[in-house]
User: Fold this.
Amino acid sequence: MTTTKVWRLSDGHAERQLAEAAQLLREGQLVAFPTETVYGLGADARDTTAVERIFAAKGRPSDNPLIVHIADIQQLDKLVLPYPELARQLMEKLWPGPLTIVLPVKQGAVSPLVTAGLATVGVRMPDHQAALQLIKEAGCPVAAPSANRSGRPSPTVAAHVLDDLNGKISGVVDDGPTGVGLESTVIELVDDRMIRILRPGGITPEQLRQAVPGVRIDAPPTAETAMSEAPRSPGMKYTHYAPQGALCIVRGEPEAVVAYIEKQVYEAKLLGEKTGVLTFEERESEFHSDLVLTYGSELHLEQAAQRLYAALREFDAGQVQRIWAEGCHEEGIGEALMNRLAKAAGNHIVHV
Ligand code: TXA
Ligand code: MG
Assistant:
């Protein structure tokens, strides 16, 4: 057990606090920090002992590579081999931001544990002031998976990090809730005109198209077919983001969805099970489960993305045994949202 330090940046000593956190990273310790997507669990990417600690703290399978976070483009040149113009354009338009680009790694630039033995490394520059400052101060590339125990929903506030990792890491930088709420989009470049999305996330296909007009996109499978296809990125093959209760996604016309879920809730209650529903606030009052949580309005899927993981954790805190979640349109951020929801549900999706 270690004592996990919490640096609350709202206390007004951000500069000193981030310097202290950066010092621990330089010493090979684990420090969790906010990004614009979710909280990450950081370590010096070059230090194998430090990176080993990430896998141990998370209980993460060692064949799942880590994303390396950088604060400026100079850092990138030390990490990867010369990259194509397409990558440069994407970085120019979308960094800092929730886009991870998989590029050929420079031999010896990071610990082999970071890449899980692959010849590539996933890199991103987070769009978050405290994260950038921390990485800059640490003076090293920072390997950081989401700061949750493996399989649990990713953390969107520092309290989630502590729920999973208190006593296992040196500290957490608390700068309030993260903005996007879902992880970055992970891409690889197929050729100089084509991008393959390995994991949908904070940057939508539309944003990629706008960044590089004329680019072709090998889109990821939808939530429905994702499970039948071979995983695109090593991390996508594991059960993820799952609450402890059994989760089922329900899709269809709103009235049919309400009717179906209400019937299921009724039956589960007869069996003495604690029930939960995750819905949009437009229909919140129509449900009678023990716990009803909302994504916010169905007109604002960005807000739904922000709230998803916290809601899944709330069901756990309430020891809910059966959960029904309303699905949403797979447009814009809705695609990444449905992707995570489907994974959390072990792809248990019902159409009504
Ligand atoms: O938003 C995010 O990406 C957050 C924040 C903390 O930056 N990080 C995150 O890391 O989600 P993690 O470890 O939970 O997910 C990393 C994903 C995994 O699916 C992994 O398999 C994939 O990126 N990945 C990393 N390196 C890769 C590589 N070289 N080739 C293919 N996939 C890679
Ligand atoms: Mg993760």
Observations:
- The pocket of threonylcarbamoyladenylate (ligand 1) is lined by residues 35, 37-38, 40, 64-67, 98, 100, 102, 115, 118, 120-122, 144-146, 183-184, 186, 198-199, 233-236 (CB under 6 Å).
- The mean pLDDT is 95.
